[in-house]
Amino acid sequence: MFIGRNAELELLNKSLERDKASFIVVHGRRRLGKTRIIEEFLKEKPEGTFHYYLVPEQTETIIMRELSREIG
User: Which residue in 13, 44, 50, 54 has the most C-beta neighbors within 10 A?
Assistant: First the structure.
């Protein structure tokens, strides 16, 4: 069961209504449910509609290189 994050899910769903592509960053303290809300949002979306990238605990240079490779 997923309870209490309707405002956040609504914000993510509104991104679908735009005519342009969106880049949404979800950040915050550990253990607040960031990954869980993304998983809930993506659950019923068509595959390939979104790309989800979990940032590893690495240096900024490595993170940017890996994200560039993923997007490319």
Answer: 50
